[in-house]
Amino acid sequence: MRLADRLAARAARRGGPWPVLLAAGATAAAAGELALPTLIGGTIDSRGAAGWLGACLAAVAVVLGGECLAVWARGLTGARASAWVRRAVVRRLLGAGPDMTRRFPPGELVTRAGMNAEEVGRAPEALVSAVALLVPTAGALVALTLIDPLLTLALGAGVAAILLVLRAFLRAGGTLSGAYQETQGHIAARLVDALGGARTIAAAGTVEREARRVLEPLPRLRAHGAELWRATATAGVRAGVMVPVLEVAVLACGGWLLAGGRLTIGELYAAARYAVLGAALSGALGYVGQLARARSAAGRVAEVLDVPVLGYGTRRLPEGDGTLELRGTPVGDLVVPGGSVTAVAGRSGSGKSALAELAGRLRDPATGVVLLDGVPLPELSRQELRAAVGYAFERPVLLGETVGAAIGMGGIDGGGAERAARAAGADGFIGRLPRGYGTALASAPLSGGERQRLGLARAFARARRLLVLDDATSSLDTVTERQVSRALTEQYGGCTRLVVTHRVATAARADRVVWMEDGRVRAVGTHGELWSEPEYRAVFEERHFEERQ
Amino acid sequence: MPSSFTPALRPGAVVRAALGRRPGALARIAAWSLVEVAPAFLIGHAVARAVDGFAAGAPLLGLAWLGLLGAAWLAAAGAARQVVLAVAAVAEPFRDDLLERVVRGVLGHAVASACAPRAGSAAVARATLQVELARDAFAALVGVVRGFAFTLVSAGAGLLTLAPSLAGLVLAPFAAGVAVFAASLPALARRQRAYLMADEATTELLTSVAHGLRDITACGAEERVGADVERRITAQVAAAGAVARVTAVRTAALALGAWLPVVLVLAAMPTLLRNGVGVGTVVGALAYVTQSLAPALGGLVEGVGVSGVRLVAALDRILRPDRATPRERPSRTASAGRTASAGSPASARSLASPGRTAASDSPAIELRGVTFAYGPHAEPVVRNLDLAVPRGQHLAVVGPSGAGKSTLAALVAGLLRPGEGEVLVGGVPADRAGPAARVLIPQEAYVFRGTLRENLAYLAPATDREVMAAVEELGAHPLLDVVAARRSAALDAEVDPGRLSAGERQLVALVRAYLSPAPLVILDEATCHLDPALESRVERAFARRGGTLVVIAHRLGSARRAGRVLLVDGGRAVAGTHDELVSTVPLYADLTGHREPVS
Question: Is B442 within the bounds of a domain?
């Protein structure tokens, strides 16, 4: 069994009793429906005898009960199975951490945890429903044969024809809807571009022109849409003709037998109903498609679940000053003395961020080891490591309901968050927000610089031994940056600070500078010592187009 | 505020309007529906006559009736195809209409709030998905409601003509089933809605988690975030369970509506036969129930119960996008100040009469007692500011981040209106001055999919020679090499904004501004992704271009090059030359590195 199928099967098992109840309900309803034509035929032939009528009533009750149970269980099976898949994906996301984002773009992860999990969750119900449709189809064939084998021949030929139609439709649908979705994507992409330029458009007064530009592919969308409708309509004709043709064929065949005395009226009625039931296979069309989607969705989810989790040890940090040491790592060997301010400089792509990620174990080095106060980082427990190391980023992603929660991230109390915000120079603008620290993050108007300062506050609030600032003050002007670095020295002076920077002033203020080049440490020294090297000076001469986005 | 772009319409009104606009398609739907439901009328009669014929030993008569029925079915299948196409003819314009609404709504909203939304792509993806859901649901709904109505009338007529005495036994319980279904709809709609909201809340959280994995790991917040996600997932399962329960109850009532008539007809059989009704007629009546009425009811339940609810929910989101996408709400809701919408009739008028912007005696920019805050409780970002910028002056605006520099730019450009005081551009209130009077180039440069020429000549038509001269003047020629292999082909090359760097996109915007004839240019950190040398070249080119230049400075070089500097800081502002400010304002000295900070 493929990995994806196993995943779907496991998701189904996590649905508790509901998949079983769904199967039971659907089967009971199918069985009841299968029995009803015979029972109604018997009632007709017996001219309304009480016994037959009672049996009819009982079968109707079974159908009713079975259908209700199936509908109820179907909803819950899908919801629970999807929830299980979603939980598994989220656990894996949180466990793998940034490694996950290096393999999949975030939007892709949202799709897999959202829509794809939902599709996998529908696999059990699609399977059960498809099987429950097979019961009447197969049963109808048996019942027909019991009435008269000739009738089965007529129906069997029809069912084979329907199967062919199903296959033809599935092939045609895929390519057509692909073109349609692609055009939709063009419109969406144009709209996203225009949204990014909202200020320009507002100033230029060109909203109407932009709306027209975004909607330019609309006629193409309409054309692809029309093709899709024609395909749907044509497939509908083929499937729609089949059922009545089957019924008429069976009725004619049975009528001939009735005229010859080989069939009763009740049996003829039953035969006609079985022909219709047998044709219920066309209903499987939807479920076949759903199963195919569930399989491919399961495959995509399985890829996410394959990403290894970042494991942690159990050790705690000994007393220490926060000395950081890299030994034999791909970026080279490095010792960052405890309590020092160490700047990391280098051109874009020279490995500054890679070094920053290694320092606090946002990733493990392919070779070698990183130690904090003599302890290899992977041996530390998660709580110990994350309480010891604080990270601030150039573009922090803020999470939490409120501004205060975004700083505290659950681990820091309100007082700690406010102290850190003051140090990061963020208390001023937070005070100007409608509800201060209690302002909902989603509605807080934040500029890039303000977000950076919240990110800094978040890092300050939790760093005990090591603080890693990965270009985390790039959007701050010089005054604010100086205020922040002053506060950092005054209030968090006991911490080792590793500061990735593009700015000369920051490098000059640091105790020493790690100069990165081509993914490795090129040299370590004071800014003054390194400044004599022309290539070092060139690092700070910003290039034409510094960042490709 | 967004109401001018997205009138809050009721979903029902939108659906009615969509139907009303295509009377031709509606007539086609009705005409083909008559053909499509012919078998629903014929089936009982044909089956009754055929059965009676076969039973009476006249198989040819039976076959003739069945042949008629078969022919009706074939015609019906062809008609069904025409019905689908006619429904599509209504559904496709409906989709176009919704898509236009979404595009204009989202765009208008973003423009009105005069700020770039943070994560627009997710909101756009969701909105286009809603449009597709609405289209599919709309088509399905039109299809089933129509099918049900036509089938009911035609099978009812068939039943009344075949066996009037049975009509009551069939139609009464059937009507009860429909009534129960109708009664269950509001509850179902409510729960479906609750489910969709829970689903959306989960997706929203998942989105921020997926984007913030690095940050979550760095903060060791896996457990807290995991617990948050768990809460949302649990709520979602509970909402799904609530939907399933209502659906199950409704299914029971409806199955009863479909099966009770069968049982009643069978129970009444002895009486009927005594009164001279033939067995064939009973079988025909059963055919009406099981072949026509029950499937139509099933379709109605499925269609209205699923598609209808989905349509209402999707339309609700499309027609009220502010509620649909809470995260993409304009982040700076201007309630103390007001936002102005460019492209309003006022600005269109001033474009038509450029004379209004050419009152040569008034200063280029004049602010009188301007105060602006982003919210009723927020501290003003600009407080009681007076400023006059003479024509032709080169002004640099400097200050710590968050001090209100971009707000000032937006006020001068007329994108924001002051809460108090007034902003005049060339003597005209800024929000009425219009695009011909000023150009604002924001930090996030707008480049769209189109040729480089279209992008560069966005603000004003320009000849190729003029465009190339501007490119040369600004030192933007690296741009030409990026978009095309040969420089001569560059202007006709298609630009993919995603493949340009931030600096390249800024160059596009700068050339565009340079080519505009507007007498006032506002560069709001519009050169922040260029290196200092190129930035200097660009600013000097703009100074040579003539007119008034306001530069929101990203680097100190911009301040040194300007004739006059405005220092803004937390609602206060001081203006002067660079040298004056260095010697008199400690913050400015600090900012420019002329005084070492006390440490």
Answer: no
For A30, the token pair is 């199918």
Burial class (CB in 10 A: 0-12, 13-18, 19+), A107: middle
Same-domain status, B311 and B344:
no
Pick left, alpha or beta for residue A332 (phi over 0 → left; psi -120 to 50 → alpha; otherwise beta): left
Mean pLDDT of A150-162: 76
**Would you call B58 helix, strand, or coil by DSSP?**
coil
Look up the CATH number of the domain holding residue B548: 3.40.50.300
pLDDT digits (tens, 9 = 90+) for B488-543: 888 999 888 878 888 889 999 999 999 999 999 999 988 888 877 888 899 999 98
DSSP state of A397: P
pLDDT at position B340 over 50 = no
Q: Cα-flanking dihedrals φ and ψ of residue B276, to 5°? A: 90, 5
Per-residue pLDDT reduced to its tens digit, A132-151: 777 778 888 889 889 999 88
Joined tokens for residue B500: 């340009």
Same-domain status, B504 and B409? no
- Name, in order, each residue with C-beta under 8 angstroms of A65's C-beta and a sequence gap of 6 or more: A25, A28, A29
List all residues 6 or more positions away from A178 whose beta carbon is below 8 Å from its beta carbon.
none
Is B543 a domain residue? yes
Give the residue from chain A lying closest to B67, CA to CA. A248
How far is residue A119's CA from residue A174's CA, in Å, rounded to a whole number?
Answer: 17
Name the average pLDDT for chain B: 83
Q: Are residues B55 and B139 in the same domain?
A: yes
Q: Do B249 and B100 share a domain, yes or no?
A: yes
**Residue at which a domain ends, from B465, B489, B517:** B517
Across chain A, mean pLDDT equals 85
Say which of B209, B381, B442 has its CB closest to residue A93.
B209
Task: Name the band, by pLDDT with cuts 50, 70 and 90, for residue B348.
Answer: very low
Indicate the SS3 state at residue A541: coil
Do B507 and B523 fall within a single domain?
Answer: no
Give the residue from B545, B504, B498 showing the smallest Cα distance to B521: B545
Q: For residue A500, what is the enclosing H or E element?
A: strand A496-500
Last residue within a domain, chosen from B465, B493, B517: B517
Residues B315 and B340 in one domain: no
Residues B179 and B253 occupy one common structural domain: yes
Tens of pLDDT, residue by residue over A432-470, are: 777 889 988 877 767 777 889 999 999 998 888 999 999
B278 touches chain A (CB under 8 A): no
Which residue range(s) make up the domain with B471? Answer: 448-517
Domains, in order of start, for chain A: 1-130+285-310 (1.20.1560.10), 324-540 (3.40.50.300)
Compute the distance between CA of residue A377 and CA of residue A324 in angstroms, rounded to an integer.
Answer: 10
CA distance A431 to A222: 51
Q: Do A204 and B458 touch (CB under 8 A)?
A: yes
Q: Does A508 touch chain B (CB under 8 A)?
A: no
N- to C-terminal Cα separation, chain A: 42
How many structural domains comprise chain B? 3
Structure token digits, residue B222:
């896996």
In a domain, B443, yes or no: no
Q: Which residues of A touch B53 (CB under 8 A)?
A: 255
B189 and B75 within one domain: yes
Q: Which element (helix H / strand E) includes A375?
A: strand A375-376
Instruction: Please name the helix (run of DSSP H) or strand (run of DSSP E) that holds residue B429, with its range, or none.
Output: strand B428-429
Q: Is residue B47 included in any domain, yes or no?
A: yes
Interchain CB distance below 8 Å, A196 and B120: yes
With CA atoms as reference, report the closest residue to A293 among A127, A445, A89. Answer: A127
Q: Does A406 touch chain B (CB under 8 A)?
A: no
Task: Report pLDDT for B188.
Answer: 85
- The reply to whether the predicted model has a pTM over 0.90 is no
Collect all residues of chain A within an 8 Å Cβ-Cβ radius of residue B502: 545-549
∠A273-B40-B278 over CA atoms, to 5°? 65
